[in-house]
From TrEMBL:
Species whose genome carries this gene: marine sediment metagenome
Domain OBG-type G: 119-267
Keyword Manganese: no
CDD domains: Obg (cd01898)
SUPFAM superfamilies, alphabetized: Obg GTP-binding protein N-terminal domain (SSF82051), P-loop containing nucleoside triphosphate hydrolases (SSF52540)
Residue ranges of every copy of the Obg domain listed in the record: 1-118
Protein name as it appears in the record: OBG-type G domain-containing protein
Cross-referenced NCBIfam families: Obg_CgtA, PRK12299.1
Pfam families according to UniProt: GTP1_OBG, MMR_HSR1
Amino acid sequence: GGNVYFQAVENLDTLIDFAGKHHWHAQNGQPGSGNNKHGANGRDLVIPVPPGTLIYDVDFDLLLKDLSEVGLKVRICRGGRGGKGNKAFATSTNQTPRYAEPGKKGQERNIQLELKLIADVGLVGMPNAGKSTLISRCSAARPKIADYPFTTIEPVLGIVELSDFRRFVMADIPGLIEGAHNGAGLGYEFLKHIERTRIIVHILDIMPTVGSDAVENYYGIRHELEQYNGRDAKIYKVKASRDERTFEGTIIVDVERNLPVFGHQKS
């Protein structure tokens, strides 16, 4: 029988095609025929997945493969071995026995797929800080945007086209809250997507809602990132999400004075 493989391919960025589909199997091997001919082998099944897909064996709680790059491929199940034909059991007194050995059953596995997005730039920040607005201005991505927290509940990818024909991938990570590194507010589900981003851009609302403070919000998000996987501050950038012309200069100065890395600019 054929083998079953998973392979990371281009032009896929979600696992949505697997929703509702729970079984995959390669082609069975074919039976032998006359004149002592072997049956044809079954065709392999190659299942395409997005780069960044992790494949787990559910029964053993084991990571089988991290398909982190396009082209990586892993065999998940080995096809069964063909049995011996009746010719193998011929004797001097029975040249055409009516018995043939059945083939061995192929391997079976319970698999779990997990996708960690691969992006050049990951946008992080408090809920409703302006991440979705930024990615919608820079790319063709059209995330849901509204004036209330947790509008984005799934990561959104956008392709940013540059004038010199280069481009990069930007990811809008849903809003983080205190305790995200311990799973608060689906924090782990969101934080895992920043592991493979080359640069983290922290979108900071310098005039947050009543009862919230921009500087405290900055350090709160920074703390969650460091507690989760210790991201290096050197690849960390900050951007204000409001037009500074609408606020008094003292507010901008106060934020700059309290943040070690900050660059404010118009949205």
